[in-house]
Amino acid sequence: MKIVISLGGSVISEMNGNYIKKFAEFVSSSEHSFYIVVGGGKIAREYISFARSLGADEEYLDRIGIMATRLNAMLLNTFFMKKIPETIEEAKSMSPPVIMGGTEPGHSTDAVAAMLAREVKADKLIIATNVDGIYDRDPAVYKDAKKFDRISINELRKMVGDKWNMAGKNVVVDAIACRIIDGAKIKTFVVYGKEIDEIKNAIYGREFKGTEIVV
Ligand code: UTP
């Protein structure tokens, strides 16, 4: 199978060497073809908010975010030492495993992963994040927030709206990614990525900690 993973920056940027090593081992030993898009996480947020305080505009802030995603991608790439592609076309032309960060301003790495999944005709898109699924409202704020085991892409799109709002904004799956997932009917799984076994469960069609997006 061809698998695209959006590996949240919050999952990888905690400088947990053991996790990164295990993740790399899993990718290299698997029979599947992997495309990994790494997110910006903490360093992206910190640099973006600092640059915002200096007066940088939104496009420039996105560019800073992209650099942070590539920096995180370089951590995982330590175990592969391949070229990190900077566009979807370049990624598509490479043989897997492919490790990359963001591409251009105006969206998140989830959207990059969705575009890549569409272009390589991936069997599955895994959004590996630091929450255990999609909720009807923010579980950190609302104690009675309800988690979805499955959610239709239509319902999700109603929840997230239709625009890319602001650099560094933290939503589980951004609107642009949702639009691509919907348009290309990509089988997508939002998974608690801090446990690599949960990523494996989603890949192998077993029960997993997270939410399936029904397209
Ligand atoms: P991400 O938003 O994709 O990483 O990129 P993340 O969301 O911090 O990782 P998790 O999911 O929370 O763990 C960080 C920022 O970089 C810019 C955006 O500003 C985004 O908010 N970016 C990233 C782009 O403009 N284009 C890209 O292709 C990727």
Describe this structure in words.
The protein has helices at residues 9-12, 17-29, 41-53, 58-77, 88-93, 109-120, 153-160, 175-184, 196-203, and strands spanning 2-7, 33-38, 98-100, 124-129, 134-135, 147-148, 150-152, 188-192, 210-214. The chain is an alpha/beta fold. The protein has a single domain (2-214), classed as Acetylglutamate kinase-like (Carbamate kinase), CATH 3.40.1160. Helix 3 (41-53) packs antiparallel against helix 4 (58-77) and helix 6 runs parallel beside helix 8. The longest helix has 20 residues, at 58-77. The protein is globular, with a radius of gyration of 16 Å. The two termini are 19 Å apart.
Radius of gyration: 16 Å
> What is the CATH T-level topology?
Carbamate kinase
Give the distance, in angstroms, between the N- and C-terminal Cα atoms. Answer: 19 Å
Described by strand count, sense and barrel closure, the largest sheet is: 7 strands, mixed
The poorly predicted ranges are none
Strand order of the largest sheet: 3-2-1-4-8-9-7
Number of DSSP helices? 9
Derived from helix and strand composition plus strand pairing, the structural class reads alpha/beta
H and E order: EHHEHHHEHEEEEHHEHE
Outline type: globular
Question: Could you tell me which ligands this complex binds, including any ions or cofactors?
Answer: uridine 5'-triphosphate
What is the total domain count?
A: 1
CATH superfamily: Acetylglutamate kinase-like
How many strand segments? 9
Question: Can you give the mean pLDDT?
Answer: 93
Strand coverage percent: 15-25%
